[in-house]
């Protein structure tokens, strides 16, 4: 188990290294004359050259890359070209907000997809059809449309929630809950649609296994067979889908934060993107890549726990 | 948002080819497919015919009428800059759809070519591709698109090209799996040996298999492309100079409080198109899967309308050689088992079986596969697979009719009164739990004993069924033990709650011959020791000779001959029984002479009762 964990960890670190290196090279190769972009076409050649020198972008790419890497491993991602704020501060102050959204959505979609998937798999018939139709809709309709719909109905129409804004969890728990409920629901629907299909499929597969009959023949109740044995066996494939969906949820948070005016990573990414603020974009790529790598590692570990065969190999 | 299209099954080439002609016709009869195709056709026509459908220019701002409601001039009103909403919607569909097609085509071309090469040649190309994919998959698509936008600027086409690269794995995986499956098929080997070139093998055998799944994936990915492109524009990161659905949404969202209606049109356009694409893909996949099923259903048993008829058939009954005064523990009468079919009829698999199992008796139910003996055994436990049910007849166990009991009452019988030993040991243990926990759990539930007590008992049982190191087996997972050991574990489970009747469904069929003999010895020993009744389902007369007091011979869901094992062995009367005896010579009797073993059984019974 330990070597399994270590191996996954090492491959995660390598993956992160490859992603950040590729991103760095592509972003800076594509960035062109940085000083000119920041100062605009009116600025003189001399001020542009000075700006480039200040930012250190006049040096060869490989030198800059190595120096960036050396700083990045210590958590220093340089400063923003536009606000001159350290990138690591900008990101860490907003990371918690986005993570709380994404984790909330992961838990919500995992739970609801499991309940619906098991229900559809056991009932079949009309329940199955309802779940199938809902999941096609949830899969197809983009998350931001769902978010806009939720704002219009539950915030503007019914007035149950505030349409925008974010309350720190430390300030008021109920306030925080009120401010994240709609965003989390909006994020979750697409993920639920994808996961419920997998849960349904693997529960149906598991229910067909011979050992289910044998467990029933031993006098175990149907709920015990389904929720203890079948679900544990169906959990592996469902978790694999959840891992993929998690990546999607992080991406979805970018758009959803914009709609609900939540000060998370999404807002920073939109601002940094439209300005072409490459150091901030780089920091975001690394931060989001790291989150994904860590979550995938966790999911691998849970897989190992669920499936005794995975532990050995 | 990054969404991954659901996994697709790939059908073998032959089936796909046979089915294709019907596919179009069936898609036209499928309601949701027709709806999806109509919607897509309307959107496509709207995009093509935009200049004829509206005279307004989507880019011209009419300062005189800002945010005006629908009117004759502007059928859907105007937006905040005074531009005609209908014109923007129609012209916008051109950009949205062309952009989505561009992205999807790039994804498909990269993915299909990569998948073909990696699947056909494998080796290093496969390793490299899987690495590239894990790099691509590690970042949310929107983040990559944002990063690309930061340096490349707001170009719809550029964004969709990047999107195409990001979604290439969706096609790659599909094609790769299909190719790996097909390339090891015999007919592909045959083609290769007979000198057909790689390119034409790929073209003829592989592309024909993946064509339909690629179309399905294309629709899914295009739906995602429309969504993600609208998302980028909605964030205000798209090209503001062209009318797109996402740009319209962005404008409208900023003025959501003043004119919420402006949000409605682009939302409907995006949602309808995405849903139609997904519905089309789903319908196509369903129809493909359904056609695969129809072809696969080759096993036909008689299909009868509800209110099934019990076949008029009287089995050959051998006189009892010795007066047997033991009471019936199980009395099955005129049992009919059937499976509900989608068309409302019932597929009948057991056609009126009657049999008696006395207390302390070992009863053999023998017949070839498909004769309905396993279905009969499952009916007694009420554990028929989904769709199966007892259509008529009674299953009286110790005075109560199992066929009519409620689910809860049947559960009280299972394990505690009637136990089950399955056929295939390895597939009958839950792979995710230890052997020990699978023995302990039922004992705690049915006997209500403590965990510690159950554990002691379980170790004791494992010792009793001849497992050399019970402590270690207790802690082991099913994949860590052999088939013979697993069958011992299952036997331990069956006797763990002191049932009165054990139903053993071909308990030795899946095992090696030497292990078979050991398991039969074990069953005989336990039966002598516990005095339990056993109904043993088998197709092997060796097993019957070895264990059984009485035998019922089953054919086509009916009992054709029944009586004491000794008497049937001495003179089989039904032609089917005789043909089974002829087969035994080829099968090779498991062990022992029949006279010897059945005599011994009768003697031990006599001693017991």
What is the beta-strand fraction of chain B? 5-15%
Number of strands of chain A: 0
How does the major sheet of chain A shape up? none
Radius of gyration of chain A: 24 Å
Q: Spans of chain B with pLDDT under 50 lasting ≥5 residues?
A: 1-16, 294-309, 587-609
**Which pair has the most extensive contact?**
A-B, 81 and 79 residues
Oligomer: heterodimer
Fold and architecture overview:
The complex is a heterodimer of chains A (313) and B (609). Chain A is mainly alpha-helical. Helices cover 81% and strands 0% of the residues of chain A. Chain A has helices spanning 2-31, 34-39, 45-55, 61-72, 87-123, 125-140, 143-157, 173-207, 210-217, 222-260, 265-275, 278-306, 308-312. In chain A, helix 1 (2-31) packs antiparallel against helix 12 (278-306) and helix 5 (87-123) packs across helix 8 (173-207). The longest helix of chain A has 39 residues, at 222-260. Chain A is globular. The termini of chain A are close together. In chain A, 44% of the residues are buried. Chain B is built from 22 helices and 12 strands. In chain B, the strands form 2 sheets. A 7-stranded mixed sheet of chain B has the order 2-12-11-5-10-9-8, with helices on both faces. The termini of chain B are far apart. Chain B is elongated, with a radius of gyration of 34 Å. Residues 1-16, 294-309 and 587-609 of chain B have low confidence and may be disordered. In chain B, helix 6 packs across helix 7 and helix 7 (156-183) packs antiparallel against helix 9 (198-234). The longest helix of chain B is centred in the first third of the chain and has 37 residues, at 85-121. Chain B is α/β, with parallel strands linked by helices and 609 residues long. At the A-B interface, helix 1, helix 6, helix 7, helix 8 and helix 9 of A face helix 5, helix 6, helix 9, helix 11 and helix 13 of B.
């Amino acid at each position: 188990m330990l070597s399994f964990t270590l191996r996954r960890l090492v491959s995660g670190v390598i993956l992160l290294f490859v992603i950040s290196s590729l991103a760095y090279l592509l972003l800076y190769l594509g960035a062109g004359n940085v000083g000119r972009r920041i100062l605009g076409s009116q600025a003189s050649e001399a001020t542009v050259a000075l700006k480039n020198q200040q930012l250190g972008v006049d040096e060869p790419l490989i030198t800059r890359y190595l120096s960036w890497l050396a700083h990045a491993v210590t958590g220093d991602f340089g400063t923003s070209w536009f606000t001159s704020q350290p990138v690591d501060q900008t990101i860490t102050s907003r990371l918690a907000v986005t993570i709380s959204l994404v984790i909330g959505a992961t838990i919500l979609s995992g739970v609801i997809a499991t309940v619906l998937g098991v229900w559809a798999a056991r009932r079949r018939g009309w329940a199955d059809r309802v779940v199938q139709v809902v999941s096609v809709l949830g899969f197809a309709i983009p998350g931001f449309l769902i978010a806009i719909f939720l704002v219009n109905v539950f915030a503007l129409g019914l007035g149950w929630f505030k349409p925008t804004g974010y309350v720190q969890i430390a300030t008021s728990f109920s306030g925080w809950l009120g401010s994240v409920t709609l965003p989390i629901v909006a994020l979750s629907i697409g993920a639920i649609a994808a996961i419920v299909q997998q849960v349904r499929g693997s529960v149906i597969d598991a229910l067909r296994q011979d050992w289910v009959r044998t467990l029933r023949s031993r006098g175990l109740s149907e709920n015990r067979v389904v929720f203890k044995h079948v679900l544990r066996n169906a959990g592996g494939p469902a978790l694999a889908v959840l891992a993929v969906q998690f990546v999607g949820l992080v991406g979805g948070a970018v758009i959803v934060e914009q709609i609900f005016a939540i000060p998370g990573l999404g807002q920073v990414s939109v601002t940094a993107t439209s300005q072409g603020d490459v150091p901030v974009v780089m920091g975001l790529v690394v931060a989001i890549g790291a989150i994904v790598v860590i979550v995938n590692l966790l999911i691998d570990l849970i897989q190992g726990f669920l499936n005794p065969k995975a532990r050995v190999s | 948002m990054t969404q991954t299209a659901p996994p697709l099954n790939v059908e073998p080439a032959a089936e796909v080819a046979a089915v294709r002609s019907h596919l179009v016709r069936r898609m036209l009869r499928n309601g949701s497919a027709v709806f999806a195709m109509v919607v897509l056709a309307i959107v496509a026509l709207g995009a093509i015919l935009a200049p004829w459908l509206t005279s307004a220019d989507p880019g011209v701002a009419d300062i005189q009428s800002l945010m005006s409601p629908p009117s004759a001039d502007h059928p859907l009103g105007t937006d905040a800059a005074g531009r005609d909403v209908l014109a923007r919607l129609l012209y916008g569909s051109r950009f949205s759809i062309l952009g989505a097609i561009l992205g999807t085509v790039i994804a498909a071309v990269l993915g299909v070519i990569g998948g073909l090469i990696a699947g056909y040649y494998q080796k290093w190309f496969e390793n490299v591709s899987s690495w590239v994919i894990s790099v691509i998959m590690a970042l949310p698509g929107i983040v990559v698109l944002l990063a690309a936008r930061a340096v490349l600027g707001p170009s719809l086409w550029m964004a969709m090209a990047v999107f195409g690269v990001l979604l290439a794995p969706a096609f790659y995986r599909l094609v790769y799996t299909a190719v790996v499956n097909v390339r090891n098929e015999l007919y592909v080997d045959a083609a290769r040996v007979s000198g057909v070139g790689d390119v034409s093998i790929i073209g003829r055998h592989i592309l024909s298999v993946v064509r339909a799944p690629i179309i399905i994936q294309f629709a899914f990915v295009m739906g995602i492309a429309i969504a993600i492109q609208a998302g980028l524009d909605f964030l205000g990161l798209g090209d503001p100079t062209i009318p797109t659905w996402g740009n319209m949404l962005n404008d409208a969202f900023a003025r959501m409080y003043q004119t919420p209606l402006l949000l409605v049109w682009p939302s409907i356009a995006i949602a309808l198109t995405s849903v139609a694409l997904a519905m089309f893909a789903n319908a196509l996949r369903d129809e493909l899967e359904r056609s695969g099923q129809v072809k696969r259903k080759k096993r036909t048993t008689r299909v009868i309308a509800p209110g099934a008829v019990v076949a008029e058939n009287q089995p050959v009954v051998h006189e009892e050689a010795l007066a047997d005064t033991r009471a019936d523990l199980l009395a099955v009468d005129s049992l009919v088992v059937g499976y509900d079919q989608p068309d409302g009829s019932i597929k009948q698999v057991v056609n009126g079986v009657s049999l008696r199992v006395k207390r302390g008796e070992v009863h053999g139910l023998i017949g070839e596969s498909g004769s309905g003996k396993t279905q009969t055994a499952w009916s007694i436990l009420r554990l028929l697979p989904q769709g199966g049910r007892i259509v008529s007849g009674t299953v009286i166990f110790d005075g109560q009719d199992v066929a009519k009991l409620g689910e809860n009452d049947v559960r009280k019988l299972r394990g505690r009164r009637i136990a089950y030993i399955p056929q295939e040991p390895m597939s009958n243990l839950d792979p995710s739990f230890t052997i020990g926990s699978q023995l302990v759990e039922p004992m705690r539930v049915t006997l209500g004993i403590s965990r510690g007590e159950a554990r002691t008992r379980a170790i004791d049982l494992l010792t009793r069924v001849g497992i050399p190191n019970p402590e270690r087996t207790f802690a082991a997972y099913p994949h860590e033990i052999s088939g013979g050991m697993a069958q011992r574990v299952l036997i331990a489970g069956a006797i763990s709650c002191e049932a009165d009747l054990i139903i053993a469904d071909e308990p030795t069929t899946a095992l090696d011959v030497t292990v078979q003999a050991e398991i039969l010895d074990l069953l005989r020993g336990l039966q002598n020791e516990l005095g339990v009744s056993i109904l043993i389902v088998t197709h092997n007369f060796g097993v019957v000779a070895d264990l059984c007091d009485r035998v019922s011979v089953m054919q086509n869901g009916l009992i054709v001959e029944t009586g004491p094992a000794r008497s049937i062995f001495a003179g089989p009367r039904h032609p089917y029984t005789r043909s089974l005896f002829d087969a035994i010579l080829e099968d090779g009797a498991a062990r022992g002479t029949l006279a010897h073993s059945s005599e011994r059984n009768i003697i031990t019974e006599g001693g017991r009762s």
